[in-house]
Design goal:
heterodimer; A: about 220 residues; alpha/beta; 6-stranded mixed β-sheet; 7 helices; globular; B: about 850 residues; alpha+beta; 22 helices; elongated
Chain lengths: ~220, ~850
């Protein structure tokens, strides 16, 4: 649940309001797209929802837990347990193989059998044969599939995706969208994504439109 | 011009982005470390040489039996040198009741030019340093002269037709003689005081000396000019011609300081290599774009070479300034130890440091940057294509080549360079192999421990190749530092072993055959050990293999001829002294006793240009003796035992008139006994070695201290290499920790992971460094310095613990900010 969320930052021209009184609730298992022009505050909203940053006013709660009540490490622990991420530029750790990248959140959450579980998820995203490859040996679509496998490996309750198709061609993007929603459905994961991609937004249960830090549509 | 502009523009951009700071810092640090060591060692080296120079009381001396021409002194003064003159001659000193042969020394103002006279108010009383000489009418004397004459301070003595009041007791004279020729106790007066004494007639055996000291370059100039002008009977002495053990001390100090400086050079190279690699990696995309926009390979090459050159000059200058400041601050901080009068830093090492900085940059930094020009433009489309990583083999080859060049330039010593290079290359290979094995082993330790530990280990294992490079870099730094400590400890311990607490501190010479029993008795009566007396016979060498000395071409002419023509002391004995070892032939067996055989010291054999079987003809008290060279010995001159260049088997020398010599240890409280001995045996001369030993120790301490200071510099350089390594991985770490935090790791977990990583890296590095330094230390000690190798468990343990803590703590401190990276960065990238 997002409750009257606001975010100001100081800039040379004085205080700049990036988000202004944004409120909405996302139901368990729901998929929500946040759309808007560049600079409308989409990524800031995503960052606040995931507890990567702290709001100037208002609060976010995930599964009944108010993020404002947690310190930084508390929020990190919450992410380890309940949250998954997919980024526009994949953000795989270059020094690690595909398998090791997927194992990472499992190890952080101290999950049992991280290797076996990581291998299983990689197989689900169709990369069972490429587990030993490093990110720079994989195409963009393959890298994003590893990133999705990494996001779903811990079976998070909620998955945040930041322009997941932004760096991919249309066809690869479609494959990734399919994969994302298949996993979303099969695991009942709540999906919150920021996108410019209308095809992606259309697949979501709900679209939230941001304009200059204010929520326009909460359909 | 275009290239230069482009290079400047790129540099400016890079400078603004702050990314170039790593490379610049590495280069500045490299040159700073190098030049601070250079400046500092330059100064300390000069100091050590000056202290060793005390053995002549000057930097340069002309010695002659005749008056030394005024023009020599004028030449020295024209070159800005300080000048003093001494006259030394044996003469009888009388009181109303007694007389004693003494060494009279008359000196002009400013004497001694190097070192200070030390005196006391009574024999063996409290000692103080003095400037200046006794005033006219007064004399300062050595304590044994007081004993021999039965007088005290305040009494008067006569020398020739002059009378002097004894006002001080001489404790230390820098150029106190140290040969086994007759040394009578000294009486020191001002130069003018001898006018009218009637002692300076034509027949007198006066040794005239012109003492000169000052700026090293001027000394060198005067030396080379005088070398050409010397007339027969005049000798030119500098500290290397002085006492052999002093010359050796300087030589060793010089080697150690060079070795220490080279450690800084190596560490600097590693820092440069890391920074240059990162620079090249970062520039690959830029080059791809430049090429895409039509830049030629040559254009790219020139642009980057120009950038490197600008960097080298700019950072080099900054490094020099910092290096100069660093050594000045250090000298200031350590003024109590190095003294107030550390000579000023010469400019000599500045261009050298800059040049060496360039060589390091070229050797370690150039290969990856040069490879940049091979970047393919396709990279603008596919970042995974078109990079031109330079082969590691090329990097290592060029780096090793440049290090070899540096070593040889710096030490001027091929053998030493060979060992250091071998140790370094061997060390690097050993470290890499060891690191690979340990890292492979670490992988198995990942499971079953805490999450932070697992991350630390995983971080090392997963970056296998990078970890090996880091372990090699850290380990190599530690290795050379440890190696230095190993060798330094070894040197000091070996010296202490050579100069034990009970090292002989007195020589008794001129003991007549009929006094030997009495002298032995004297010591046993006083509860001391019976001294071992060694006989010696005066002789002159006249022919070698039947050819008279005049007809022989000696090599080198001056020094070797002097050696051949001087009066020799021939000794004999059936046992090979413990401080001697045979290098050719065999020591005398019983069958050799009574045969005219001679054992030569190796340097003597070299000077005379003879080997085994050569026939040496001696004139002994008017009689001729032909002896065959039977064996050649190496003598450990640092032992303070009586040693002889020429030694015969028993049964040959006994027929000639001989005197006896011995060395013995006398505790301080027993020193006054010597007065009684001299009273009882007036012809016996006692040489007090305490002062001379103290001087040798002093020089050794100075040298060891200098090495330790330099060691501190290299320690700092080592820390900076580590910082460069952390700097080079900063982006990766920043991204990684943001990623880890995003994925739910707590700050503590990230921090603990980094801690585990660096402490483990430190442990691996120091473990391998300890093993490597032990091997290299052994080779250096036994092969180069000819010292016994003493493995130091304590040092290794300290190295292991401190190395681990050092790498761990520095790594953690350096990455502290990076691990605090807010997770939001992952969305902003």
């Amino acid at each position: 649940m997002v409750d009257t969320l606001g975010k100001q930052v100081s800039s040379p021209e004085g205080n700049l309001t990036i988000l202004d009184g944004v409120s909405f609730t996302v139901a368990r298992g729901e998929s929500v797209a946040i759309v808007g022009a560049s600079g409308s505050g989409k990524s800031t909203l995503l960052g606040l929802m995931a507890g990567l940053d702290v709001p100037s006013s208002g609060d976010v709660s995930i599964a009944g837990q108010a993020l404002g009540e947690l310190d930084e490490d508390g929020r990190a622990a919450l992410r380890a347990d309940r949250v998954g991420f997919v980024f526009q530029s994949f953000h795989l750790l270059p020094a690690l193989t595909a398998l090791e990248n997927v194992m990472l959140p499992l190890e952080l959450a101290e999950a049992a059998n991280p290797r076996q579980r990581a291998e299983k998820v990689l197989e689900e995203v169709g990369l069972g044969e490429r587990t030993g490859h490093y990110p720079n040996q994989l195409s963009g679509g393959e890298q994003q599939r590893v990133a999705i496998a990494r996001a779903f490996a811990t079976e998070p309750e909620i998955l945040f995706a930041d322009e997941p198709t932004g760096s991919l061609d249309t066809r690869t993007g479609d494959t990734i969208i399919d994969l994302l929603f298949d996993l979303n459905r099969s695991r009942g994961t709540t999906l919150v994504l920021v996108t410019h991609d209308d095809r992606l937004a259309d697949r979501c249960d709900r679209v939230l439109s941001l304009d200059a830090g204010r929520l326009e549509t909460a359909a | 011009m275009n290239t230069l502009l482009l290079a400047l523009r790129q540099l400016r951009r890079e400078w603004r982005s702050g990314e170039l700071a790593v490379l610049i810092a590495a280069l500045v640090v490299a040159v700073a470390a190098l030049s601070s060591v250079g400046f500092f060692t330059d100064r300390v080296r000069t100091l050590v040489e000056q202290r060793a120079g005390e053995s002549l009381a000057a930097d340069l001396v002309v010695s002659s039996r005749n008056e030394i021409p005024e023009e020599y002194a004028a030449l020295a003064m024209d070159n800005g040198l300080d000048v003093a003159r001494t006259l030394t001659f044996p003469s009888v000193v009388r009181t109303d009741e007694r007389s004693q042969l003494a060494e009279i020394r008359a000196a002009t103002a400013k004497y001694p030019l190097r070192g200070k006279l030390r005196v006391s108010d009574e024999a063996y009383g409290a000692v103080r340093q003095v400037d200046g000489l006794p005033p006219n009418g007064e004399a300062w004397v050595e304590p044994r002269l007081l004993g021999a004459l039965g007088i005290r301070v305040g009494d008067t003595v006569s020398v020739g037709r002059k009378t002097f009041t004894v006002t001080q007791v001489l404790d230390y004279v820098p150029d106190q003689g140290f040969s086994f020729a007759e040394i009578a106790p000294m009486l020191l007066v001002p130069r003018g005081a001898l006018e009218g004494s009637g002692l300076l007639g034509p027949a007198s055996r006066v040794n005239h000396r012109l003492l000169m000291s000052g700026n090293q370059d001027a000394v060198a100039t005067v030396k080379s000019t005088l070398e050409d002008r010397l007339e027969s009977g005049q000798r030119l002495l500098d500290i290397r011609d002085g006492r052999p053990e002093m010359a050796r001390a300087v030589e060793r100090a010089d080697r150690f300081l060079n070795l220490a400086a080279l450690v800084a050079v190596l560490l600097a190279g590693i820092a440069i290599a890391m920074a240059a690699r990162r620079y090249a990696e970062r520039e690959t995309d830029t080059v791809a774009i430049m090429k895409c926009l039509g830049s030629s390979r040559r254009g790219v090459l020139l642009a980057y070479l120009a950038q490197l050159l600008i960097l080298a000059v700019g950072a080099g200058a900054l490094g020099l300034a910092i290096g100069y400041g660093a050594q000045e601050v250090l000298v200031y901080l350590l003024r109590d130890w190095v003294g107030q009068d550390l000579p000023a830093a010469g400019p000599d090492s500045a261009p050298m440091s800059l040049a060496l900085g360039l060589i390091i940059l070229a050797g370690f930094g150039m290969p990856p940057v040069l490879a940049l020009s091979r970047t393919a433009p396709i990279r603008v489309l596919r970042r995974d294509l078109g990079g031109a990583p330079v082969s590691s083999r090329v990097i290592y080859f060029v780096a090793i080549l440049s290090v070899a060049a540096l070593l040889i330039v710096q030490t001027g010593d091929l053998e030493l360079s060979g060992y250091v290079l071998g140790a370094t290359a061997g060390g690097a290979v050993l470290l890499a192999a060891g690191a690979a094995a340990l890292i492979f082993g670490l992988g198995r330790l990942r499971s079953g421990v805490g999450v932070a530990w697992r991350f630390g280990v995983a971080s090392i294992v997963r970056r296998g190749r990078n970890s090996i490079i880091q372990v090699v870099a850290f380990g190599l730094g530690l290795l050379v530092l440890l190696l230095l400590a190993v060798v330094r400890t070894d040197l000091l311990e070996s010296w202490q072993a050579m100069l034990p607490e009970k090292a002989p501190n007195h020589f008794l010479i001129n003991i007549q055959p009929d006094q030997t029993d009495g002298v032995k008795q004297f010591f046993t009566d006083n509860g001391l050990e019976e001294p071992q007396l060694q006989g010696m016979v005066r002789a002159r060498l006249t022919h070698i293999d039947g050819t008279s000395l005049e007809e022989i071409d000696f090599e080198p002419e001056g020094m070797s001829r002097r050696f051949a023509e001087r009066e020799q002391n021939l000794s004999w004995g059936s046992e090979l002294a413990g401080t001697n070892s045979i290098v050719a032939g065999e020591w005398y067996s019983e069958e050799d006793h009574g045969k005219p055989l001679v054992s030569l010291e190796e340097e003597a054999a070299e000077r005379l240009g003879v080997g085994l079987g050569a026939k040496l003809t001696y004139n002994i008290a008017g009689e001729e003796l032909v002896a065959t060279v039977d064996n050649i010995r190496h003598i450990d001159w640092d032992s303070f035992q009586p040693n002889f260049f020429m030694k015969f088997p028993p049964g040959v020398m006994e027929v000639y008139p001989a005197t006896y010599i011995t060395s013995l240890y006398l505790p301080d409280e027993k020193a006054p006994l010597l007065l009684d001995l001299v009273q009882e045996y007036p012809s016996v001369t006692v040489i007090d070695l305490d002062a001379i030993i103290a001087q040798v120790r002093d020089v050794m301490d100075q040298a060891a201290l200098a090495v330790e200071y330099v060691f501190l510099f290299t320690l700092v350089a080592g820390v900076l290499v580590l910082l460069a390594a952390v700097q080079a991985s900063r982006d990766e770490r920043r991204f990684e920790s943001a990623m880890l935090r995003t994925l739910g790791a707590s700050k503590r977990t990230v921090f603990a992971g980094v801690t585990a990583e660096f402490f483990l890296l430190g442990l691996l590095s120091s473990l391998l460094a300890v093993i490597g330094s032990a091997g290299a230390g052994w080779a250096l000690a036994t092969q180069v310095f000819e010292l016994e190798f003493r493995p130091s468990m304590e040092l290794w343990l300290i190295g292991l613990v401190l190395g681990t803590l050092w790498v761990g703590a520095t790594g953690v401190l350096a990455t502290r900010k990076v691990v605090k990276q807010p997770p939001l960065m992952t969305l902003r990238k």
